[in-house]
Every structure is written in C-alpha cells, then in structure tokens.
Amino acid sequence: MFFEPYAKEMAKCVAALRPAKLLEIACGTGRLTKYLSQHLPDTSITATDLNPPMLEFAKNKFPDLSNVIWEIADALSLPYPDTSFDCVVVQFGVMFYPDKLQGFKESFRVLKSGGKFIFVTWKSLEDNPITVIANDVVKGFFPDNPPVFFNIPFSYYDKDQIRNDMTAAGFGHIEIEDVDLEGFNISAENAARGLLEGSPIINFINERGSDKLPAIKQKLTEEIAKVYGKENLTIPLGGLIVGGGK
C-alpha cells in the first residue's frame, strides 16, 4: 500500500541513469531491490540494511536476483571504499537516520565523480491522511501516553532543510520533486492490520496494552472504511523524490 508505488517510480528514475554499480541503502524487505534488478539486469547491485533479520527476509524472498549482493551495512558508516558506486539510492530510509548529515556525507563519499544520490521521503503526516487516521485511533486508546512513532517517518519533508543538508554534505544539482501517488489495498481490514502490525507502532501497543490490539484494529478498520470504503481501497500518498550529484 505504501511502498510498492514508490518502488516502481524510484526504479524508473534510477534505470534512466544506467549505473554500472549501484548501492541501495536501507533496502528493508527488498521491495525496491526487486524492481531495480528487473530494470537494470546488467547492473551490479549491492543491497544493504542495518537490520539482519530484515535482510535475511529479503534474501529468502528474492533468491533469483542474480545481479544483487545482500550485505549488512550502516548508512552512517558504510563499509565501502571511496568512489565505489555510480549511484546510491534510499527508499524511505533517511527519515530514520540519527544523523542525516553524516549519512549524506557517507553516500557522497562512496559515489564516483559524476555519480547520483537519489532518495524518497514522505511528506508531512497531513499529506498522508490514512496515517493521520491510524495515529488518531491509537492515540484514542492511550490518551495519557500517545504514540509518537508515526511522527518520525513523516518528519523530514522541509525542502529548505533537505537542500541545506544535501549541500552541506557536498552535493550539487539538487532536485526535489513532489511525487503524489496512489496506494492500493484489498480491504480496510487488511490496511488496518498493515498499519498496526506492519510497523513499529505494534511495539508501542504491546508495551502498553497488547490486550487492546483487537479493539484498536477493529476501530481503525471502521475509520478507514468510512473514508476509503471496505474493499479495493485507493489511498492517496504524498512523497518527495530528492536527487543530488557529485
């Protein structure tokens, strides 16, 4: 619902550059990696993530991506020599960098001269209304200790800040494009389950009242259905695709 539309869009952006060597940071479960491999069969792709179980999941899910090497790597301290890659790409990962400038500097360092760094980040919470619904529902069950997780992925959207951070890391020719797409889901119930159990918000719920999860899921299903219907949902999404050159 969230990642598929942008994975397809990002893969097209990267494929147009035709890089010989590509580094993907924060590849997660390999959603973007799959499309990169399909669009760039002759490109050597190094797909990395800091989370070993997630990386193992991706490797097992896509065992036939013959041009992909899967490796554990920290975006803030990449284990690669200077000028190793023609392109570095990150899908919905930079928002979680504890030090964005350092992460950008590392991507700049491993890029070859003339290389390109491309990432996608979410716009604000309000630009992704289904997440506002989820956030409000969970807050309603924990009014004295509301969740903060949903604020994190949707916190890095100020274009001036992004441009300043990219410039400070050394990048030039910086482009920031508004990219509003549509996500799809088979049902409101499935969307609610994904929003709750498919993100770290589940940890918040389990720590404060796991017995409330069924009621939260039911309430969220109802609220989503009010806005988007019960089945075959079309969900508006708001993101930014950012590019910078070395």
Structural commentary:
Helix content is 41%, strand content 27%. It has 246 residues and is of the alpha/beta class. Helix 4 links the parallel strand 4 and strand 5. It starts with a helix and ends with a strand.
Per CATH, what is the topology? Rossmann fold
The ordered string of helix (H) and strand (E) elements is: HEHEHEEHEHHEHHHE
| Category from helices, strands and their pairing | alpha/beta
Task: Provide a count of the helices.
Answer: 9
Uncertain segments: none
CATH class (first level) name:
Alpha Beta
Proportion of beta-strand residues: 25-35%
Q: Based on the coordinates given, report the CATH architecture.
A: 3-Layer(aba) Sandwich
Helix content: 40-55%
Secondary structure: number of strands: 7
- Count structural domains: 1
Brief descriptors of the model:
246 residues; 9 helices; 7 strands
Give a short overview:
This protein has helices at residues 3-15, 31-39, 52-61, 100-110, 129-141, 159-169, 188-197, 201-209, 213-228, and strands at residues 21-25, 44-49, 68-72, 85-91, 111-122, 172-187, 231-245. The protein has 246 residues and is of the alpha/beta class. The two termini are 33 Å apart.
